Amino acid sequence: MLPGSASIAAVRSFVAVLLPDELRRRLSLEVDALRRRTAGIAWVAAENLHITLKFLGGVEEPRLAEVAAAVEQAATVNAFDVALRGLGAFPTPMRPRVIWAGTAPAPAFVALGQAVDRALAALGFPPETRAFAPHITLGRVRVPRRDPALAAALEAAGARAFGRLTVGRVSLMRSDLSPRGARYTELCGWPLPPACDRALSDLVDIDAPEGDL
User: What is the rounded distance in angstroms from the CA atom of residue 116 to the CA atom of residue 55?
Assistant: First the structure.
């Protein structure tokens, strides 16, 4: 904020699940292949690939603490694994605006997205009007148009497997825009509770004699 300014600085923020290096590298190969098929798309840098749970837009800095507290309260879904698979586009592959990589159906992911949405709606952030569909944005079309070559490439990769993701942490992120692209910084992060079988294995050694339990 400039000296003497009466406005409060806003931080462009979102809540996300971050991806490990190996999955980002795998998806960047898909981006490279698509890049050779089409033009006019702003591709997301490999280091910025993630799954957005909730985009907040500009948040005044004094509110970030209450936003963080709300996200922490929502991070109660047990950790889970999900397969990343398939390429697609919103609204349709033939006239795309956003190119994405998807996930296998994961009720736990939907529950996590809904929990974050409810927690932030309680603070006045507009609730989502569409069902949460976890995906990784790979690129955004600069000028929407029919692109048969891209549509064919997406259709061919509609069920392609990219690996498995362990969703064990939720992050509150800051996005700084510049002519060189977006730079994302984690402001806070919270681990999800371990899955029940993991928690039980930590608490009970099933091979221990009964007297040791």
Answer: 11
Catalytic amino acids? Answer: 50, 135
pLDDT digits (tens, 9 = 90+) for 91-115: 999 999 999 999 999 999 999 999 9
pLDDT of amino acid 6: 44
Q: What are the b/e assignments for 123-143, b being 16+ CB within 10 Å?
A: eebeebeeebebbbbbbebee
- Structure tokens, 198: 């993991």
Which tokens sit at 12?
């462009």
Query: Is the previous residue joined to 134 through a cis bond, with omega within 30 degrees of 0?
Result: no
Name the residue with higher pLDDT: 195 or 47: 47
Q: With 0-12 CB in 10 A as exposed, 13-18 as middle and 19+ as buried, what is 79? A: middle
Q: Give dist(CA 169, CA 72) in Å, integer.
A: 10
Rounded distance between C-alpha atoms, residue 79 and residue 166, angstroms: 7
The rounded distance, in Å, linking the Cα atoms of 60 and 11 is 6
CA distances from 183 to 95, 111, 141, 175, 196 (A): 28, 28, 20, 6, 36
3-class SS at 116? helix
64-74 vs 107-121: helix axis angle to the nearest 10? 150
Q: Are 134 and 109 in contact (CB under 8 A)?
A: yes
Q: Residue 209 CA to chain centroid, in angstroms?
A: 44
* pTM (predicted TM-score): 0.87
